[in-house]
Amino acid sequence: MYILRQIVEPCLELALADIGVSGDFWRNALGPSREKSQGDLSLPCFPFAKQLGRNPAEIAQQLADSISGEFNVSAIGGYLNFSAKSDWLSKSVINLEPPIVEKEVLIEHTSANPNGPFHVGRARNAILGDTLVRLNRLYGNKVRAEYYVDDMGKQVGVLAWALENLSKAQVDEILDDEDSVNPRWEGKKDHETVRWYQAAQNLRSQDGSEDIEAAISKLVHASEHGDDSVLAQFEEAYKPVLDGMLETLSRLGIEFDTFTKESKFVVDGSVSSLMERLESLDIHEVAENGAHYLDLGQRGLKGKTDFFYRRGDGSSLYATRDIAYHMWKWQQCDNLVNILGEDHKLQAKQVGMTLTELGQKTPDVMFYAFIKLPEGKMSTRKGNVVFMDDLLEEAKAHAASVVKELRGDLNEEEVNKISEAVGVSAVRFNIVKVSPDKGFTFRWEDALSFEGESAPFVMYSHTRACSIARKVGRGPSNDSTGEVPPAMHELLRSMACYYDKLSQSVNENKPHVFALFMLELATAYNSFYRDCHVIKDGVVSEFNYSVSEKARQLLREGMSAVGIIPLESM
Length: 570
What we know:
Elements: H1 2-18, H2 26-29, E1 31-32, E2 41-44, H3 46-52, H4 56-66, E3 71-76, E4 79-84, H5 86-94, E5 104-108, H6 120-139, E6 142-149, H7 154-165, H8 168-175, H9 189-204, H10 210-224, H11 228-251, E7 258-261, H12 264-267, H13 270-279, E8 284-286, E9 292-295, E10 306-310, H14 318-329, E11 335-341, H15 345-357, E12 364-368, E13 371-373, E14 376-377, H16 388-406, H17 412-432, E15 440-441, H18 444-447, H19 455-472, H20 486-496, H21 498-507, H22 511-531, E16 535-536, E17 539-540, H23 542-561
Parallel strand pairs: 5-6, 5-11, 6-7, 11-12, 13-15
Antiparallel strand pairs: 1-2, 2-4, 3-4, 8-9, 9-10, 13-14, 16-17
Helix pairs in contact: 5-20, 6-21, 6-23, 7-9, 7-10, 7-11, 8-9, 9-11, 10-11, 13-14, 14-15, 16-17, 19-22, 19-23, 20-22, 20-23, 21-22, 22-23
């Protein structure tokens, strides 16, 4: 915990100097104790043994005997352990303030092809990206959430061709009425339009589809040359779909600050200028078919070393436009973060190395593994997906049944409000709490679980704190002194680590770290609620109330940051 480090480090620096340790390399070694029973911070003394020619355990004991402050010090083996004293900890936590940081951060996430509704697999990008946006804002950064609109690729070309050439009757016949639109989503363009895309993909897979393929390729190549009429046709095709997708994301609490079209960088000449610069690099090569590429193998890239950026006909590739986009993004911010699926690792590496060749900074990238169904990978093309709209409805219905069972006193409007919040929160948290680099199999029973490590568990802890606040009926006195029983001490320890966990999540692009911490904080509050009464026999314990209110504040802010809706009652 950083608040304890602030008072430990000066004392430790003096003590180390007294015994002859030079340098400050030890600062990196000072960190959280592996076990809570050992303390809050721990310093291994083994690195000092060679410098001093002494046993690490002896060094640790000598340091423990010489250091004192608002903390307890002990030596165990070769480790020096520090534990915050309860009275100091309570004062520090009740007055806890976030660190002052303000960087301009641009986070590009989601950027899904606008050819059909969001399925659970696609939504992992959006949920992780939005959570990172929220965490950065809580941390104090000025954040811009960016959506890169793929308005000229093959998939948009397929959709545009299908809408131009296929009637509804033809689509129904091609699909044999498979995966018909759920009546609930009739009129929602992303659900309606995906059938045209799937029908076109079906036709493309059949023998004799050469004419269709040629027509689609002609459209795509025209868009890549900045043809205004084709770009307008593409926008007419994808815009209703994108609007439907954004409607779903809005229900999840996901919004964007800016939308940037891929075609912008072709139309404004950025791509042409970029290709001229790339051609002047010493690793530039030309293939037999006239295509231009960079030989990144000369810069140490393994595997697929040829990075093609220009076709033989002079048109650009997606990766070329992506580089132009990155150069533009770096003009907008201090820090740049991309959220990408693990299948983009090679391309991200190629883009990063090319940016370096051009004297540009490389972005941070959070890669995420894919979500699978029990029967395999989800695919919009194949139609084997779980749509996010359907999942949210299922989650809401499941939540409603639980709420009605527990709260028979609520009217339908109240049940609807609570169940929507609980359902959305449960779906988001089920995804956020898993490390991005770990894939998992989507199961309904897990996504909709209200037991154990779930959003409803955290929400219920917050409503308990809100219930106390309503009963007291006023703000806290911020009394920071009083008896500190074990349950309160554990809650104070958790709260003291709040900004440590937030900092780690933000700086390492690991939203799951803070999500899991919220479970820890909620658990600690529940123990406090059980053992440390705020109101007893009608009398308010000002100290206990101050602690409860600080926990309520941190729970509310932290829940919002990980996408859990902080209800005041459930």
